[in-house]
Amino acid sequence: METANSRNCGAELSDILGSQKGNFLGRGRLCADQAKAYNDILDCRTAKMGSHTLTCDTCGKSRVSYNSCRNRHCPKCQYVRQLLWVEKLQCRLLPVRYFHVVFTIPEFLKPLFYLNQVVSYLGRYTHRVAISNSRIQSVEDGTVKFRWKDYRDRKTKIMELPCAEFTRRFMQHVLPSGFYKIRYYGIMSSANSKTKMEDCFRLLKAARFISFYEGLSTYEILEEILGQDPFRCLGCETGKMMYGLAEGKGTDP
User: Fold this and answer.
1) Cis peptide before 253 (omega within 30 of 0)
2) H-type helices in the chain, by residue range?
3) Is pLDDT of 59 > 80?
4) Which residues contact 2 (CB under 8 A, 6 or more apart)?
């Protein structure tokens, strides 16, 4: 049986964390939230997360698809969430100018204002993880090479770090359980979303849009985001891979 979403051949964050598992998980250096994120990233899209079977509705070909960890610190599990969040929030915005204010407290205050397109920027910032797999160039002889952008000269550069130091820095970005990156206030709060917000749209004589993805199935959402049908059968190339019964957690086939 074919495996649908086994890991890529390139270097990944999970490879680095796996090489340092004994140093961090075995010595009690991580708090409970960090340890959970560590294990989730290691197990994401492996048999340890369980799997489900996809079967073609035309030719009957089957393949195993491993489940994702859905941890907010995992680089594989945030892209679709980011797009859906941006789309949903854009439909809630009033047709007026918005300002994005960045400030540092308490030493000094330096506001930076950007007109419009604020939501897309926020989506990239609030739903991203410390580093994506695409930035990792290689992992060799205990050393990680990854891309980073130097904003002083706006050039992309390559940095090398020992795997242990790389892992230590990454774990510092793991947020505690229950910590919210985003909070809504005023007319954007959930309490006012269907009352005062509706009044604002009415006073502005503007229509309130519905998210493009609202009401779509998982199949349809992924097809719109990826630009192709991710469930098309690669065997007969005409059928659609349909979900079967979920498999229990176990070992790789």
Assistant:
1) no
2) 13-19, 21-24, 32-43, 79-90, 118-126, 163-171, 196-203, 218-226
3) yes
4) 61, 62, 63, 64
Per-residue confidence (pLDDT) for residue 116, from 0 to 100: 44
Distance between CA atoms of 158 and 149, rounded to whole angstroms?
A: 9
Q: Which residue has the higher pLDDT, 72 or 225?
A: 72
Domain boundaries, the chain: 2-247
pLDDT for position 210:
82
What single-letter amino acid sits at 230?
Answer: P
DSSP 8-class letter at 46? S
- 135-140 long-range contacts, CB within 8 A, separation 24+: 136/10, 136/11, 136/12, 136/13, 136/16, 137/11, 138/11, 139/11, 139/15, 139/16, 139/19, 139/163
Q: How many CB atoms lie within 10 A of CB 163?
A: 20
- Measured distance CA(55)–CA(45) in Å, rounded: 18
Q: What is the pTM of this model?
A: 0.72
Q: Are 22 and 84 in contact (CB under 8 A)?
A: no
Q: Which positions ≥6 away from 89 have C-beta within 8 Å?
A: 119, 122, 123
37-51, 121-135, 152-166, 206-220: range with lowest mean pLDDT: 121-135
Q: Count CB neighbours of 176 within 10 A.
A: 9
**Overall average pLDDT of the 162-175 stretch:** 94
pLDDT for res 238: 87
CA distance 64 to 24: 31
Answer for the pair 43, 49: CB distance below 8 angstroms, yes or no: yes
Residues 5-39 pLDDT 10s: 555 557 899 999 999 999 999 878 899 999 999 99
